[in-house]
Structures are given as structure tokens and as C-alpha cells.
Amino acid sequence: MTVGKNTNILENAVVSSSKAGPTVIGSDVTICAGATVTSATIGDGAMIGMGARVLPGAKVGNDAFVDAGAVVAPGTVVPAGALYTGNPAKQLRMLNADEMSYLRSTAVLNTSMAMRHADLLVKTPAEFEAEEEERVEAQRQRWEMIKKLNEEEKQRKEAAGGAASAPVVSDAATAAGTAGAAAVHDDGTGGAAPPAAVDAPPAVVAAAATAEP
Predict the structure, then answer these.
(1) If we measure between CA atoms, which residue out of 83, 85, 77 comes closest to residue 103?
(2) pLDDT score, position 119
(3) What is the domain partition of the chain in residue ranges?
(4) 50 touches 66 (CB < 8 A)
(5) CB of 54 closer than 8 Å to CB of 91
């Protein structure tokens, strides 16, 4: 297998050779994602679209474009600068100068981006170890923070629960006093106590209950 300069083979693409012969890929070629090239020849500046298949013995000329999903049958010759599409792939038209230039510029752009990313990703073993230590420490701090927040939330709920018990007792006492006031002021005809009696504090209610009628 031979691959030329500035050629890029994108994710999930498969380039292989078989008993049918070697695979030769020129310069400034783009093999798009998911494409398959087996024992074929790809000329300079060509592009093999996403999911396309170039089968054994096929030859794709310089600056040609095999459309996405197209299947170039064994032994097929794609002329230079041609656009092939379909299954089996057939010539749709010829590419113009701008389109052919775009194919090559895409290959150069992808290659330059790959080189920049490679420079950024190159690390020494010591740098990898330091990065792992930082990750572990960050994870430990995160769990400590979660533990602290959970404890604070627990304390807040406990404090809120203790404060909430007082109004329950107070409300019960007030309800009992109100019921007593209603009973004292009942004149035997079933009339309810006047508003003043309802609002009276428990001490006043108790005094009224012991008074002579």
C-alpha cells in the first residue's frame, strides 16, 4: 500500500489491499468518513466521498470525485476530473476548475489541522502522570464538596424541623382555647361565640369558664 503526501484518511474509512493487487493512493487525496478502498488506484487530488466504495482493480483519475455512497465496480476507470455517482457508479459530469481546486484544498486543510492537533497532543510520560494526579485531586475535591453540601443540607433540615414543631403546639393550644370560649358563650340556643371570644387568649377563656352566669 502506498499513500502520498497531504493525503488524509478520515474516521471509519477502510483502506486495504488484497490478492487482487496493491492499493496506491496519490497526494492531496481525501478518503472521506466511512469510505472503503480495496486494491485500487486513486489519483492525485481525488476525493472519495462518505461511505463510497472503490472495489479491486478500479482506477480513479486525478482530481476526480466519487460521490458519497457510490460504488465503483471492479476494473472501472474514472477519468481525471470526472464526477461519478450511483451504484454502480457512472459519470454524471465533469468538474470545473474551481471544484477540482476545492478538492485539493480540502486535503491540504485537513492535513494541516491534523499536524496542529498532533503538536498539541504530544506529551511526555511525566506530563501524563501530572495530568492524572490533577484529575484524581480534582475528583477528590469534588467529592469533599458534595459531602460538605450534604452535611449542611442535613443540618438545615434538622434546624427547620425543630423550629417547625413549636407552631404545632401553639396552634393546638389556641384551638383548645377557642373551643372552650365557644362553649362558655353558648346561650343554649346553639348560637356561636362572638368574635371577641374567639380571639380571646386562653387565660381570659379560663376565667370566663369559672364565672357565674
Answers:
(1) 83
(2) 63
(3) 2-120, 123-164
(4) no
(5) no
